[in-house]
């Protein structure tokens, strides 16, 4: 979890820091300075964090979200109970994820599986990936490791269970919500269990 605090500095210090930050926000630059100092004093610093869903309050967790994925991600999910989110935006906690498979998947153009989230890893650096217990076997699997090692960082969700829906939720034309736009969208389990088509989820 992130903490906030008030930092009092002089106008001259602010001017210098603002100039040094260049294209970064001042907040990003200050975090970089702090991390470098910690690394210098204590050795290598890791930003990685593990969020355990059961440790959070209900108000902090979304009930269910939808994601769209290609066959590579679906195969990884079904074999290792893992789903990688893009690291460009920090993923916020959820209890369940509904998986829409594109035309390359064994269950194409529908939401076919649901996963119950156990925990989330965020801010994983490349040199930390192989040390995470949930990724040990993944990194030994050439079907997945070669692609993952191309990434500079990552974040992923680990599931306590992944189940195939007894009745997949299809994409039916005409539709309002395109598969590309439903990634990380929030919905409910009631809607997931009663939906006749993907638009019914939102």
CATH superfamily of the largest domain: Hypothetical protein
Count of spatially separate domains: 2
* Biggest sheet descriptor: 7 strands, mixed
* Known CATH architecture of the largest domain: Roll
Number of helices, counting only DSSP H or I runs of 4 residues or more: 6
Percent range for β-strand residues: 25-35%
Average pLDDT confidence is 89
Helix residue percentage: 25-40%
- Poorly predicted spans: none
Fold-level CATH name of the largest domain: Archaeosine Trna-guanine Transglycosylase, Chain: A, domain 4
Extended strand count = 7
Separation, N- and C-terminal Cα atoms: 29 Å
Counting helices, strands and paired strands, the structural category is: alpha+beta
The secondary-structure element order is: HHEEHEEEHHEEH
Radius of gyration, CA atoms, in whole angstroms: 20 Å
């Amino acid at each position: 979890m992130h903490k906030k605090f008030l930092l009092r500095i002089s106008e001259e210090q602010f001017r210098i820091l603002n100039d040094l930050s260049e294209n970064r926000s001042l907040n990003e630059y200050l975090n970089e300075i702090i991390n470098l100092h910690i690394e210098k004093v204590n050795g290598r610093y890791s930003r990685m964090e593990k969020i355990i869903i059961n440790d959070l309050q209900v108000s902090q967790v979304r009930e269910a979200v939808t994601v769209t994925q290609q066959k590579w991600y679906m195969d990884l999910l079904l074999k290792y109970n893992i789903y990688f989110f893009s690291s460009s935006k920090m993923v916020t906690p959820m209890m369940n994820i509904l998986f829409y498979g594109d035309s390359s998947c064994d269950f194409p153009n529908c939401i076919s599986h649901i996963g119950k989230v156990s925990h989330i890893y965020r801010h994983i650096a490349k040199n930390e990936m192989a040390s995470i217990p949930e990724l040990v076997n993944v990194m030994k699997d050439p079907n997945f490791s070669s692609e993952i090692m191309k990434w500079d960082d990552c974040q992923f969700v680990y599931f306590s269970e992944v189940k195939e829906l007894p009745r997949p939720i299809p994409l039916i034309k005409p539709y309002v919500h395109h598969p590309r736009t439903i990634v990380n969208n929030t919905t409910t389990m009631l809607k997931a269990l009663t939906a006749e088509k993907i638009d019914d989820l939102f």
